[in-house]
Amino acid sequence: MPTRTSSCNCGQLSLTYDGPDPARISLCQCYECQRRTGSVFSVQARLPKEYVTIEGESTAWRFPSDSGKPSAFLSCDSGGATYHFCPRCGSTVYWELDVAPDMVGAAVGTFIDPTFPPPVIAGFEAYGADWAINVSALGIPHHEYDGIHHDGMPA
User: Fold this and answer.
1) DSSP calls for 78-138
2) Beta carbons of 78 and 148 less than 8 angstroms apart
3) Nearest residue to 62 (alpha-carbon basis) of 81, 87, 84, 85
4) CA 34 vs CA 37, 62, 75, 76: distances in Å
5) Does residue 20 have a cis bond before it (omega within 30 degrees)?
């Protein structure tokens, strides 16, 4: 069980995970993940809070926004999420999902760790770019869910 550390681009905000391999690592193509990452995919892990240490200053942003204006699309965080990003370099490092209060979401790419386990599920493939890899062909479970109800998927 290796200790894994993730950080923003400038290194000011970091997350250290000292726990078992995450049970849920997902490859998501929802529009919110696309906007958050600037990519057509998001690979993210849910980490049990008791194994997470966060250091540094973060700025928080809420989805759906606190404006009360509902989102026009479903996403993996439709139930509500608070994203934490570095106020200096802007990298999103971790987030809190309302549907999984005992977990911390983390962007797998911020770990810069080639030994990080691969995704075990994929979602929101209908939102994906036609030219991107065929996620549906991957040998992992595929879920079309509403962002709140997870149909037996691990938290």
Assistant:
1) TT-EEEEE-TTT--EEEEEETT-TTEEEEEGGGG--TTSPPPSEEE-GGGS-TTS--GGGS
2) yes
3) 81
4) 5, 16, 10, 11
5) no
Residue 151: its pLDDT value, please?
Answer: 52
Supply the pLDDT for residue 23.
Answer: 86
Residues of the chain with pLDDT under 70: 64-78, 135, 141-155
Question: Does the CA dihedral 55-56-57-60 come out positive or negative?
Answer: negative
What single letter denotes the amino acid at residue 110? T
With CA atoms as reference, report the closest residue to 124 among 55, 47, 40: 40
Nearest alpha carbon to residue 41 among 119, 154, 152, 140: 119
Containing H/E element for 27?
strand 24-28
What is the pTM assigned to this prediction?
0.80
